[in-house]
């Protein structure tokens, strides 16, 4: 089973990518590129939060 099929897996991957982009933005010297990466990281984080809340709304875990 892939990580994206697990509850919260997709959201977790998105959070990791957002953190990676944020770190890259902090290391770049080009102000325009820094802003672009920071904005993209923020959007990914927002999406991951939304995905995570949708997982919670769907129950998150399989009822047994």
Topology of helices and strands:
Blueprint: H1 9-27, H2 31-57
Labels describing this entry:
2 helices; 0% strand; 64 residues; mainly alpha
Low-confidence stretches: none
Q: Return the structural class.
A: mainly alpha
E-strand count: 0
- Mean pLDDT across the residues is 82
Percent range for β-strand residues: under 5%
Could you characterize what this model shows?
With 64 residues, the chain is mostly helical. Helices cover 72% and strands 0% of the residues. The longest helix has 27 residues, at 31-57. The radius of gyration is 15 Å and the shape is elongated.
Concise description?
The protein is built from 2 helices and no strands.
């Amino acid at each position: 089973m892939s990580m994206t099929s697990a509850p919260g897996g997709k959201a977790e991957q998105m959070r990791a990518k957002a953190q990676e982009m944020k770190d890259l933005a902090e290391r770049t010297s080009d102000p325009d590129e820094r802003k672009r990466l920071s904005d993209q990281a923020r959007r990914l984080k927002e999406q991951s939060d939304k995905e995570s809340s949708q997982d919670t709304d769907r129950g998150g875990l399989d009822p047994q």
